[in-house]
Amino acid sequence: MSLRLSTLRPLVRHPALGSRGGLSFFSTSTPQHTRIRSTLTTSRPKRTQPSVQHPKQEVLPPTQPTPDAASSTPVSRITPLRPSETQTHGSNAFKGETTRHRQSNQHHQNQKGQSQGRFNPWLHHIYESRRAAIRAFFLGSIVSAGALGIYNYASGPITGQWAQLQQDFFSLAKASLTQSLGNSSTDPTAPLPGLSNGAPRAFSGAPAEKPLTVGRFEKKIRMLSSEQVEERLAQNQRSYRIAPTAVAERKDKSKQDLVLGYCINQVASNNPVEDDLSGHVVRGKDGSIEKVFFGIFDGHGGWCCSQKVAQELAPTVATELESVKDRHDIMATMEAIENGFLKLDDKIVNQTVQTVLEFPSRPLACSSLLPAIAGSCALLAYVDTKEKDLYVACTGDSRAVMGVYEPSANGGHRWKAVPLSFDQTGRNRWEVRRLQEEHPGEENTVVMRGRVLGGLEPTRAFGDARYKWTAEIQERVFQLFPSYRQPHRNFHTPPYVTAKPVVKHHKIRPEDRFLVMATDGLWDKLTSEEVVQLVGDLLDGKKGEEQVVLDREELGLIKSKIQSLKGVITGKKEDQNEESEELTPANLPRKGPASQIRQFTFKDTTNASTHLVRNALGGGNDEKLAATLSIPAPMSRVYRDDITVTVIFFGQQDTKEALSGAQHNDGLVDII
């Protein structure tokens, strides 16, 4: 393609840029009127005067007087004015219509309609863009300077003058808010700390004092006093003595004396507390106690699930036990207890969600799905007073330990801890093996870092529908419950968590003196042996304080030696010794109390549960106990968990002092 020189556009000066010398590579004039000048200083050719007569224009020096306005036309000292501009300039000077932006637009429109070189939109766009960039630069500079000032004001003074200004500002703020807040600690008539004799002090480079803090914005953690500590520990403590009925009304005189009484206590860390407990009873026609149920429930993700399980688990299990024809059939009884657990969990997790999906409603979903979305461990002890059988069903990581009285050869005795449950968590090698077998192909993801799918620590629990519902159901629930969390990325073959308990049977003997049931908040601070020894010493009447050294490594060696000796004697290993085979995932601390010097005290002689809670949180170290209880929720969750303890006393032992503060009623809820 050939290119003729005559078609090239000349470089012209755009009239909108005035004397700034802006150049344009664009022009809308025709080639016939195009004229290339040798220099930019050459005067512009004279144009044909338009038909409209312009007023006479002249430029006057600064010292020359202006002609009389009545006898001459207005004169501009800057630029020639068009007739239309002359009228607006005289009447609307320094108004919004004569701003730079409006003058530029008007000038461009006039040039477009009256000049031979028409208006160039491209150059106008570049010009306006430059002006917008300049305005944005200055605006950004102002905002940046303001943000820097606010940051320096909030974080602390940089110079002495700024420090003094900050101090004076807080002083004035405190004085102005004194009357509205009713703060009697500040005298409004006194000179302000930031002022000298009521007058502002001169700014100086001297170091400033610490800024004052307005009372209502102040946050402090105050140490509880000894009286407040005692009040906090005794807030939820209860003790009950189970009194036998009249001898004439009882057919079996010994069965009612099996359970002498029990004591409970609960110290919260979460607000509200997520733990719960229960006590239910089935009475005979003569009013005698036939079946007793004690429950401990450790909730997580809220309290909704633990509360519901505490209310309904024992009645559900009691209903299943009615189908057992022979009370001596241990296996049938254990199966009935398992069925009761599974039926209640199916009701919480599956039946409620089916109802919600059949009748979609956000209020219905929020009210009925909370127990399913939350979770709870469950520990249930069922006592058959007639057969003297004890069944302990555990779902989760709560623990039950029997305190056994063993006479010694020298006439004394010792207290032995017999575990009746084991912690069902991702640290238990039996549970890890079970989950890997139930989910083939997911051996590396089903338990990660000691948790199910890397999230949930207990491997068995009520609720926790996030680990039980299918992905399709969870997606539909998410539409009704927007705050519901999505399933884990390794979620493939649900359910991963079950409520099926591990049930153990124990025949109650004369040497079995008490049973301790507690949530993992207690076992994180004390070992099973320490708990049994503390309660045993309390029953023995021990007073004062005691200092012991906990060495878990040495304790583990002793246990392994005992197990090996049992294997040599009996010829077989003890079945399911999960506690001694605890796994410790990489980069995680070992679960349970750490090796340290421990100070135990024996103050709470009337309530064994309070006695255990006190020694778990500080014992004889009063300052440690007060500091631990002083930390408010939710910060306290880092240092301690909710603690719920129930201690049940059996047999013909002397428990007068341990149950001296017991109430007259048994505190049990009747199952009809």
From TrEMBL:
Residues 25-54 have a biased composition (Polar residues). The keyword Metal-binding applies. One of its GO terms (molecular function) is [pyruvate dehydrogenase (acetyl-transferring)]-phosphatase activity. InterPro entries: PP2C, PP2C_BS, PPM-type-like_dom_sf, PPM-type_phosphatase-like_dom. The keyword Metal-binding applies. Residues 261-650 form the PPM-type phosphatase domain. One of its GO terms (cellular component) is mitochondrion. Belongs to the PP2C family. This is Pyruvate dehydrogenase phosphatase. It comes from Entomortierella parvispora. The lineage of its organism: Eukaryota, Fungi, Fungi incertae sedis, Mucoromycota, Mortierellomycotina.
